[in-house]
Amino acid sequence: MNAVITVLGKDTVGILAKVSSECAKVDVNILEVTQSVLQGMFAMIMFVDISKCTVPFSQLVDSLTASGEQMGVKIHVMHEDIFNAMHKI
Amino acid sequence: MINSHDILETINMIDNENLDVRTITMGISLLDCIDSDITKSCQKLYDKICRYAGSLVRTGEDISKEYGIPIIHKRIAVTPIAMLAAACPGNDPVKFAKALDKAADTIGVNFVGGYSALVHKGFAPGDYALIDSIPEALASTEKVCSSVNIGSTKAGINMDAVAKMGKVILKSAALTADRDCIGAAKLVVFCNAPEDNPFMAGAFHGPGEPDCVINVGVSGPGVVRAALAKAGDCNITEVADIVKKTAFKITRMGQLVAKEASRRLSVPFGIVDLSLAPTPAIGDSVAYILEEMGLEQCGAHGTTACLALLNDAVKKGGVMASSHVGGLSGAFIPVTEDAGMIEAARSKALSLTKLEAMTAVCSVGLDMIAIPGDTTPEIISGIIADEAAIGMVNSKTTAVRLIPAIGKKAGEELCFGGLLGNGPVMDINRKSPARFISRGGRIPAPMQSLKN
Prior knowledge:
The complex is a heterodimer. Chain A is built from three helices and four strands.
């Protein structure tokens, strides 16, 4: 089961490190990362495998959302099915 | 692999354009709760709703969190209560309303629909008692919604019921005059009422439905408007294409939520209702879509054409995205629930006559319109008859949800707060249809009904 983590906001040092360490703590494996910085705005999209996640998915959502708030960026964690449903026929 | 543009588009729709699933509505049949003892019947009804829908709210919240999609409402629709009332004559059906309200409180849903009667061809036992009790039921409960079907393409229009409903609407408003007449906002009069509509206040669980079913209503006027704004000055064919593509995406999301809810609750999936349902929030307005198409303000000449295009394109886009489509499916135009409609009604760009024309091409009818408190019941019945005639002849659902603003005149305001919104009292034509309404009887079904 895969999920998509997106991070949007003002670029600061250590965003990627913080998100990946949060993932590692709960056995969430990072499959692919794309990121871009446009005019100081940071956008990162991370595909992760959550099948071995040691905490319930909702808890992962909460902890990442909270760390996003600490860093002043917006973090969304969503099941990949939503994107498949909306953008693939 | 999903591309990053698509991911960011979805997130932008949710964060900035008010994309949401408007409602997960569980339909529950109460036919096995019928009992000649009304107290027993109420207990059975309460037990069954709590048993079936006990985890509805939690499941909705779980899905919402996992997929990152706001799911605004979780609701219940039940078998028309007139069918239960038929078995216990001489009792006050308001007891059923109170049992429904209590069940809604226990399971945590915000509305329960089905305090209803289907009288399009005539009154059966239970129907009179239920219809007469509607004003009190709506005044003495918080979460119960009521609807009455008074006509259909196949049956014609029951003019006795039309006459009765004019009085019932007025009384529902009068009994709740201290609460901005909210009773009338929870009452819908239908022609061609769908049996699987997930949207309130008109939801009920039709007699042809299974024991229990999950129906989902999608929304997303803000998303459609933003997509049109991005496209700029394209021609109207392209406008229709953009609406279709956007409706497809919105509906796919609804379908996913519906399937997931159905799986987790072990309840069959019924339908997805492809609707653009506005809220009073800025940016979540159907009127703004029409204005984005090029109208100075909603209500201007051209409004009906724009709405027809919108309504049709929403269905065309949505129908391929879902395995079962049903309910009302189209664009809603509830005046007090739509920021753009409220502004248009205030500035008098939008009149009741224009709204009536719009209902010929939208998904429902005259919805959430405040009228002067001194309107006579006959005039309200006249409005219902007109609206029902549009539905009957065009083989579509039409509905009337009018709120007589007791003690207020045209131009003053009603404020319900929350999703029901607020808005100005609109002016009406005062010429009397009293003699027509007092004739009673039934308008025969039109030629369109003879399709066999």
